Request: fold
Amino acid sequence: MILKRRTTIKDVARHAGVSTAAVSYVLNGKENRVSPETVEKIREAIRELNYIPDFSARSLVKNASKLVGVIIPQTEDSKQLILENPFYSEMVSNIESKLREHGYHLILSGVDKGKSYLDISVQRNLDGAIIMGIYPEQFYAELKEVKIPIVLIDSYINDTYFSKVGIDDEQGGYLATRYLIDRGHRNIALVTGSIRKDGVVEKRFLGYKRALQEAGIFYNPDYVFEHSVSYAYGYEAGKAIAAGHPEITAVFATADMVAFGVIQGIKESGKDVPEDLSVIGFDDIFLSRMFVPPLTTVRQDIALKGRKAAELLLEIIESDEPDVVDRKMEEIPLSIVERQTVRSL
Amino acid sequence: MILKRRTTIKDVARHAGVSTAAVSYVLNGKENRVSPETVEKIREAIRELNYIPDFSARSLVKNASKLVGVIIPQTEDSKQLILENPFYSEMVSNIESKLREHGYHLILSGVDKGKSYLDISVQRNLDGAIIMGIYPEQFYAELKEVKIPIVLIDSYINDTYFSKVGIDDEQGGYLATRYLIDRGHRNIALVTGSIRKDGVVEKRFLGYKRALQEAGIFYNPDYVFEHSVSYAYGYEAGKAIAAGHPEITAVFATADMVAFGVIQGIKESGKDVPEDLSVIGFDDIFLSRMFVPPLTTVRQDIALKGRKAAELLLEIIESDEPDVVDRKMEEIPLSIVERQTVRSL
DNA sequence: AAGTTAAGTATAAACGCTTTCATTTTGGAT
DNA sequence: ATCCAAAATGAAAGCGTTTATACTTAACTT
Reply:
């Protein structure tokens, strides 16, 4: 593989009979510094030589890489991204297209347990990052050090340094639970990923409790099944509920993926959804529509969430005074979509 | 945002009282060129100053970026990645973890219709790329120009320049069809994404025809429903089959995602799977297990596919003579997993 | 003691680009 | 013709690294 030498700005300059500075000017849209004829000559040369700039060199001098980091959570056990969950892949896909539209590229990555994201952000000179999910305190502290714009998706970290996009999870949890209560359910289980401080699950849990309390229903800790956001855990919980809790008539799963598992678990225990047990999910991933039976769930616009996060980040990156932009919290609207997994008692 | 100046190798050198060369040596594992005490001093300085190297600068001089491009197909209409399909997200997730393990980062991207991948590979000085799916001829021609190692996933482009990882799709198509035939089906529909040259679908289609022929069944073009790899199209086709072709007893969908749609379409036409119509899919994405009814399908190890692609690429990148490594075709094994969507006639 | 060698270290060029600033050219105005 | 401002151009420094090369020192040989 004899690597042909790169075509550089120098080649272009020579070919056009001008200095590298001139070439750089037209490359950077500062054409007013160059005469129209020269611009044309340079354009021509660029075309003829098929010149493509080197972003590393550019990054070095401009101190901007046109690179954005995107972090998504990993499975607890292995080090794999939980990209399989359509919730994340749909967001990533929307973030990617928005970024590309603006000439940015995306480095997709998980972050090793206990390790920081400092390394990659500094190594790659990232212009910004979008972080999904929730991490240890320390992680955020380090992130701030890097001094790049950060957008947090689904995090309640209370620090104005970070911009955020998310939903009103407490309200979502409330809505879901209330929806069940309104249909006559009193003994309502909660199946959920681990309830961590500043995470979405914590808020949804709070909403669940608020709805219960408001309806005068005693909160029973035995009814919360907390472990991980996965089909597998939902399945397990579904079985446990169907087998061990005949008094429970409905379950609120804090993610559609979990709800699928719950339903499957219930079915395999010989009960039916929604005849014997009602189930409501959260997210409305595109699969929920196609599930059998179609899942009743709390809908959030996932694509919008991704797009908003990208837009917000770009806005901060491209503002002249990134430190002055006030860090807003973009809130994506919420609604219940009624399908066929909840019945009225 | 007062950007504190980067900590550079110079700072480290000064702090340790040595030259930048020495620092660079220990950074690059050439410690034998430096005395043990100096190494220690430098290590200390690095730690104390919290030094993190700049990969742009490194890339510039080493002409290697530790960056790998990953391309996945986009939806026809919009410019969005079809990452929602778990088939892709599972691969990406496995590729990512493998790459990260080896100190590489991944730039995830689609490629704009008609545009080339040349830009990004040159701009970013990519060390290699993994390309999923199939693109116009021209695309590959340009790709070769860049002279970086490329691994193609699911492509039958006949060019030894590229390494490949894939399955025996013809055999897969054959197996699926044969499976149905063996269970008494004669009128078998094929529902598939567009049959493009050198794509997996073309091969599966060929396998379908071979099985038919071998069984002495007349191939009926009316039985192939060709459009796009999507739930939506499957749904449409499912309806069309259930409503307009009472003689058809089984359908082979060339992707699980499509099979889901087909089944849904059939059900909404008032027929049942597998009672009235049998359906077999392809891929065995993790959802197929959880689908109701659980999908009978041709299984390929998607995670393995991703990992193999990453490994293969790394192997070529890190070999001293990348042009000498012979470009193999890694073949992932195939099998049928029997679940509940096919019945014997 | 002089010479040789090896080991350790430092200097400086190079990678491809942007951008400051000095210089040259142009074209009015006088 | 002369002057001047404005426009166009170019030289060169610098971004943070690596690495070839040069240099210094220490350690052996004779």
Remarks:
- The first strand of chain A starts at residue 67 and ends at 71.
